[in-house]
Amino acid sequence: MAKYPPLSLQFPTALFFFFVFCVILPPSVSLTVETQALLKFKNQLQDPFNCLESWKDSADSPCQFAGITCHEGRVTEISLDNKSLSGQISPSISALQSLTSLVLPSNLISGKLPWQLTNCSNLKVLNLTGNKHDWNLPDLSSLRNLQILDLSANYFSGRFPAWVGNLSGLVGLGLGFNEYDEGEIPESLGNLKNLTWIFLAGSHLRGEIPESIFGLEALETLDICRNNISGMFPKSISKLRNLNKIELYVNNLTGEIPPELAKSHPFAGN
Ligand SMILES: *[C@@H]1O[C@H](CO)[C@@H](O)[C@H](O)[C@H]1NC(C)=O
Ligand SMILES: *[C@@H]1O[C@H](CO)[C@@H](O)[C@H](O)[C@H]1NC(C)=O
Ligand SMILES: *[C@@H]1O[C@H](CO)[C@@H](O)[C@H](O)[C@H]1NC(C)=O
Ligand SMILES: *[C@@H]1O[C@H](CO)[C@@H](O)[C@H](O)[C@H]1NC(C)=O
Ligand SMILES: *[C@@H]1O[C@H](CO)[C@@H](O)[C@H](O)[C@H]1NC(C)=O
Ligand SMILES: *[C@@H]1O[C@H](CO)[C@@H](O)[C@H](O)[C@H]1NC(C)=O
Ligand SMILES: *[C@@H]1O[C@H](CO)[C@@H](O)[C@H](O)[C@H]1NC(C)=O
């Protein structure tokens, strides 16, 4: 050993550097991954007003990026409302394991909604209303924590997303003004007992309103206008004691507004 003093020094030296890099300056793998994911997300967007200028790889943490909220150093929210962003949502977003809220309404974002979003299993709020997304919606029914799902006013096509009936924690559901194939309102929407707001206007829906909808006792807004809903004006609507807004105009309903509704709901006289 005495013959090779440098060797005997090597081990502690290496240990020292290991200590410096991993203990004193933890490389914080999660932050690096999250920063990269956000920069890829930015890369797929056109940003004419430089709203994402603060999104730089020189930043230590993405928590200072405009529109980003963190909790304990992890990205929990992305909120970019009405920023004239176009382009597409990058699948890289799936790396954001703590994301609870993705809010990008009133932009010009187009293309397919990436199915990889299902990896963000903590999502509670997904609001993409007023964009230009098209293609079929991916099945997002594995996002069991969703409370707000607003995909209205885009160009989503294909089958009406009946899988929303599995998202039992939903409080607000907006699917209206899209380009689905003609179809019926799924019976399974009646599973969503916590729904207070449902917006299905202009969704190419035909057939009758399923009876299950009238078991949604928490419902405050029921908007199914501008479809091709037929049948008698549903008498059971008076079971919805918390309703304060009903929009059923431009459909193919017959019959009268039930008098019980007028009695139990002060608004019905209007
Ligand atoms: C979007 O932003 C523009 C300009 O910043 C503003 O004029 C417009 O009212 C906003 N629209 C919405 C829906 O907030
Ligand atoms: C999806 O989530 C798992 C953890 O649940 C993670 O290991 C994986 O890297 C994620 N996939 C992508 C594409 O981000
Ligand atoms: C949705 O729920 C139904 C039963 O209500 C079940 O058969 C189906 O597999 C579920 N779908 C998903 C994607 O979880
Ligand atoms: C519905 O809301 C109640 C009260 O906020 C909550 O306790 C319950 O877990 C919710 N149900 C689901 C399926 O999320
Ligand atoms: C989605 O965002 C828009 C714009 O901020 C808002 O008006 C709408 O109420 C949100 N949707 C839900 C269901 O909260
Ligand atoms: C509405 O649905 C009926 C069948 O229920 C169909 O005959 C009619 O053409 C549809 N109207 C529109 C405008 O799609
Ligand atoms: C209303 O429904 C009837 C019977 O299904 C159908 O013949 C008619 O075309 C529908 N009207 C419209 C405007 O879709």
UniProtKB/TrEMBL annotation:
Pfam families, per the entry: LRR_1, LRR_8, LRRNT_2
Superkingdom of source: Eukaryota
Alphabetical UniProt keywords: ATP-binding, Leucine-rich repeat, Membrane, Nucleotide-binding, Repeat, Signal, Transmembrane, Transmembrane helix
GO cellular component, as recorded: membrane
GO MF annotation terms: ATP binding
The Leucine-rich repeat-containing N-terminal plant-type domain, residue ranges: 34-70
InterPro entries: Leu-rich_rpt, LRR_dom_sf, LRR_N_plant-typ
SUPFAM superfamilies in alphabetical order: L domain-like (SSF52058)
Annotated signal sequence range: 1-30
Cellular localisation: Membrane
Protein name, per record: Leucine-rich repeat-containing N-terminal plant-type domain-containing protein
Source organism of the structure: Liquidambar formosana (Formosan gum)
Species lineage: Eukaryota, Viridiplantae, Streptophyta, Embryophyta, Tracheophyta
